[in-house]
């Protein structure tokens, strides 16, 4: 059994996963949703990877350079020591004021001591490894490195694709995986594009330092809190890497088909922008002071909804693509044999009424910050009015819900609550913009939805708001009723709902999304964000000590770098599902902020628990 012990490096154009042993096992170029260059994550034999193999290894340790997205893998060997610093370049371009974000990965080999011997296993497999990829020293280059030399890799059949590797190592040694003695700093630069300028170790080091400065400056702009700053910053840095610079879209994760349960078929492509997930990320990142990310996301929303009658989808491609056809890569064996491996996502066709409330919640947050000085406030106001028309016409109708049930529509409680949220935020926006003619009309609709939910979603038998109207099943998403202001944390109905959901859905300290049967049977893994939701809910209803201990327990289930995937196995606590997961990290940040901002965090017992976790006792 293996865990997702990977680090992520990225530059808001694409991202790579680097294993705890320093192997790049997942990379898509030139952008997040392109076909893979390395995909041994999906098939160890066929997928391709970029490994570093010391001959006399004693110990490997891995960490990020603090407050950056530069990943260090330290190799302690019997014959010496060295470090590989992996990153994708991102820094301010002084010539044009924009950012330099090439589709490149740089592996900087920092010599520390001795003469460590290693081999490099460079095995790209382009186009999801559908056909053979050949790698060769480009014709005209000699064995020894000269200016302009490189290794080229390209497909021989099927769709044409190519890749370039520049290095200070001897290219023949890389091609043949021959022994290399490290005696000084060296580099490898992997690029989707052929380079026009000579590449050398000095230039690679310069890109490393510039990228380090960029991330340090970005992290410094992140709001500080009394507790959990390290966890908040790491999660924020991870969420930033899930944003796509070109369009403003935000991805749910950088992987496809990592299974929710090993050996089963709940395997989905998450390299897209879900309106729900992205809006939640934007709200939490704004609270951390990262306003530019929010502005660019709202610009993305405006771009995908150009016309007043444009129907909003639940998700889009990272460049605003509306059709995300789903297909299976049957030639790949899947993560630990979990098939199918899917690209594309048919869920884009689904109807989910909760997306409107989550988006309007973010629009209200931004307009509240900027008032009408926001450069596209008029476009946003048009979107607000159009969304309320849609909500008014659809809130009574069933949908597929937050969990994207593929087989049937239901009157999901969470969807209804978020329809209420949409209208509530619209009322607030209209008030903010002094558009009183809309306030009374929308307030009546808001109250009507509120009454309907209390009437049809509450179960006297369960003493809880249930998953859907007329159902006795419970659902973790209902815990968010309080977060969106639908109900107060002290309301006996909410308190009772939280405790009923905990009793019904919690197992071994982790949470099911729901327990009832769906398209693929009963869920078998814990959904990480739901465990954070429960922690938050317990904290808000006054069970602070229990919530805090639960929070620390959850933090201990991250991988060695503090990263989370989508799911956790109840028994083993191994991470499952796509990785790293935006949902999980935004929920971690929200919980950390709630705990840190609580006036009651000064209570002795809570301080003791926090210090105990931090190792201060």
Automatic annotation (TrEMBL):
Pfam families in alphabetical order = Glyco_hydro_15, TREH_N
Any GO MF annotation of the entry: hydrolase activity, hydrolyzing O-glycosyl compounds
Which interval of the chain is the signal sequence? Answer: none
Which intervals of the chain form a coiled coil? none
- What organism is this sequence from? Sunxiuqinia dokdonensis
Q: Does the keyword Electron transport apply?
A: no
Name of the protein this chain belongs to: Glycoside hydrolase
Q: In what residue span(s) does the Trehalase-like N-terminal domain sit?
A: 8-133
Q: Keywords assigned by UniProt?
A: Hydrolase
């Amino acid at each position: 059994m293996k865990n997702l012990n990977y680090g992520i490096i990225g530059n808001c154009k694409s991202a790579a996963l680097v294993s705890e042993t320093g192997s790049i096992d997942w990379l898509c170029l030139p952008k997040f949703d392109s076909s893979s260059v390395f995909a041994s994550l999906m098939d160890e034999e066929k997928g391709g990877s970029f490994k570093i193999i010391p001959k006399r290894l004693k110990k490997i340790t891995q960490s990020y350079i603090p407050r950056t997205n530069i990943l260090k893998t330290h190799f302690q060997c019997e014959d010496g020591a060295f470090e590989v610093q992996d990153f994708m370049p991102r820094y301010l371009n002084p010539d044009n004021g924009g950012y330099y974000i090439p589709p490149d990965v740089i592996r900087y080999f920092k010599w520390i001591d001795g003469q460590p011997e290693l081999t490099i296993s460079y095995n790209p497999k382009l186009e999801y490894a559908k056909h053979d990829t050949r790698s060769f020293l480009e014709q005209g280059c000699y064995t020894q490195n000269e200016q302009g030399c490189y290794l080229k890799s390209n497909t021989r059949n099927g769709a044409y694709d190519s890749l370039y590797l520049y290095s200070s190592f001897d290219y023949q040694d890389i091609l043949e995986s021959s022994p290399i003695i490290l005696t000084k700093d060296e580099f490898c630069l992997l690029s989707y594009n052929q380079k026009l300028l000579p590449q050398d170790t000095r230039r690679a080091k310069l890109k490393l330092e510039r990228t380090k400065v960029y991330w340090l400056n970005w992290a410094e702009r992140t709001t500080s809190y009394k507790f959990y700053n390290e966890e908040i910053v790491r999660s924020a840095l991870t969420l930033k890497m899930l944003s796509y610079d070109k369009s403003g879209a935000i991805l749910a994760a950088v992987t496809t088909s990592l299974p929710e349960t090993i050996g089963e078929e709940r395997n989905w492509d998450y390299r897209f922008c879900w309106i729900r997930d992205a809006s939640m990320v934007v709200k939490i990142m704004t609270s951390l002071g990262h306003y530019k990310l929010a502005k660019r996301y709202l610009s993305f929303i405006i771009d995908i909804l150009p016309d007043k009658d444009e129907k909003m989808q639940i998700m889009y491609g990272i460049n605003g693509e509306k059709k995300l056809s789903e297909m299976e890569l049957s030639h790949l064996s899947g993560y630990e044999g979990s098939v199918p491996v899917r690209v594309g996502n048919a869920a884009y066709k689904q109807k989910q009424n909760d997306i409107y409330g989550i988006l309007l919640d973010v629009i209200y947050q931004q307009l509240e910050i900027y008032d009408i000085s926001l450069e596209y406030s008029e476009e946003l106001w048009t979107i607000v009015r159009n969304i309320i028309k849609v909500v008014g016409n659809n809130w009574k109708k069933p949908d597929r819900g937050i969990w994207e049930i593929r087989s049937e529509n239901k009157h999901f409680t969470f969807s209804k609550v978020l329809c209420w949220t949409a209208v509530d935020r619209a009322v607030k926006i209209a008030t903010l913009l002094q558009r009183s003619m809309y306030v009374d009309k929308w307030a009546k609709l808001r109250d009507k939805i509120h009454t309907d939910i209390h009437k049809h979603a509450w179960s006297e038998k369960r003493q809880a708001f249930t998953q859907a109207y007329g159902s006795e099943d419970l659902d973790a998403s209902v815990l968010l009723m309080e977060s969106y202001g639908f109900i107060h944390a002290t309301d006996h109905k909410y308190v009772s709902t939280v405790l009923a959901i905990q009793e019904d859905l919690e197992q071994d300290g982790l949470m099911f999304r729901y327990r009832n049967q769906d398209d693929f049977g009963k869920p078998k893994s814990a959904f990480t964000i739901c465990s954070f939701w429960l922690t938050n809910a317990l904290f808000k209803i006054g069970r602070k000590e229990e919530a805090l201990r639960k929070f620390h327990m959850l933090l201990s289930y991250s991988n060695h770098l503090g990263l989370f995937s989508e799911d956790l196995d109840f028994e083993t606590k191994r991470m499952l599902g796509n990785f790293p997961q935006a949902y999980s990290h935004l929920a971690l940040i929200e919980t950390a902020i709630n705990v840190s901002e609580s006036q009651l965090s000064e209570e002795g017992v809570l301080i003791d628990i926090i210090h105990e976790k931090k190792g201060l006792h």
